[in-house]
Design a protein that fits this description.
single chain; 302 residues; alpha/beta; Arc Repressor Mutant, subunit A; D-Maltodextrin-Binding Protein, domain 2; 2 domains; two-stranded antiparallel sheet; 9 helices; 11 strands; 42% helix; 22% strand
Length: 302
């Protein structure tokens, strides 16, 4: 049997003629000349070696063969459209970048930075996790990148040797004080000035990296902090400070709003900061993730 030479346009033209039962109407809807439609129908009939349409003064009707061909035409064009949708969906999926972040405003800052560097941020999808959930999702390839707070505490832990870091920003550590505290009116503080204070901190089990950075900062200042309270989250810690029983060492940008009852005084020690990094797997091989990591490097690597 001779191979058919029909093109997709032949099927589209025939489909439109069959549905409208009028060649001139079909041509108008297809935005082509009537002669082009007529020629395409004739080419199909020549290929099939049979008439598909009966011409009459008001238009056309389908022959028995034309009705069968119309069924096949609809099926073929539906399959073509489905194939195009699948390919587009696969392409869109491959462009999607999954980013994890801890609660806070950092994700919005990342979006602004990327947008300011002419990156199309519409492909970014964000997922809010705590630190441990982020690392697990990153290793399981549920995330492409994790936006991690306190990453300066990860460099000294062998448990994260499989991960790489692109520093995003550094946040100055602040002494978070109740408004009645004796240091509330100061412009800045040296950390060693707080050696006699009582602190609230976060538990090792949930916030091990944050606690490690806190203890290392105090150690560099030459003292071991007196910890009176372990709060199970940042907001709980800030509320404890506002109640007046202790102070904290946190970034001012933990929350996006100014909270009543608190004063933030920056710590002047040069090494007293919280590092925010875009973290990814060292052995990352997925093309879309590597492409995004290179974009991050171009934005943030010094």
């Amino acid at each position: 049997m001779r191979e058919a030479n029909m093109e997709i346009r032949h099927l589209k033209y025939f489909q439109k003629v069959a549905s409208t039962q009028n060649i001139s109407h079909a041509a108008e809807m297809l935005n082509i000349s009537q002669s082009s439609v007529t020629r395409a129908i004739q080419e199909i009939e020549n290929e099939a070696n049979t008439l598909l349409l009966c011409r009459n003064p008001t238009g056309v009707t389908l022959t028995a063969a034309g009705k069968k061909f119309y069924i096949h035409t609809n099926r073929i064009l539906a399959l073509i459209n489905e194939a195009i949708r699948d390919v587009k969906s696969e392409c869109e999926q491959s462009k999607k970048i999954n980013i994890g972040f801890c609660p806070g405003i950092l994700a919005f800052e990342l979006i602004d930075t990327l947008r300011n560097n002419a990156y199309d941020v519409s492909a970014l999808h964000f997922f809010e996790f705590d630190f441990h959930e982020q690392i697990q999702a990153l290793r399981n390839e549920q995330l492409d990148v994790a936006l991690v707070r306190y990453s300066n505490g990860m460099h000294f832990d062998g448990g994260y040797a499989d991960l790489a870091y692109i520093p995003f920003k550094r946040l100055r550590v602040h002494a978070v004080l109740p408004v009645t505290h004796r240091f509330a009116g100061k412009k800045s503080l040296l950390l060693e000035e707080l050696r006699n204070e009582v602190f609230v901190t976060l538990p090792e089990s949930q916030y091990g990296i944050a606690r490690r950075v806190f203890l290392e900062n105090c150690d560099r200042a030459g003292f071991v902090p007196r910890i009176a309270v372990e709060s199970n989250g940042f907001l709980a810690a800030l509320a404890t400070v506002a109640a007046g029983s202790c102070i904290g060492l946190f970034s001012k940008s933990i929350v996006s709003a100014t909270l009543p009852g608190l004063i933030y005084v920056p710590i002047a020690d040069e090494a007293c900061y919280i590092e925010i990094s875009c973290v990814y797997k060292k052995e990352e091989k997925r093309a879309h993730a590597l492409e995004f990591i290179n974009v991050l490097r171009s934005c943030f690597d010094e």
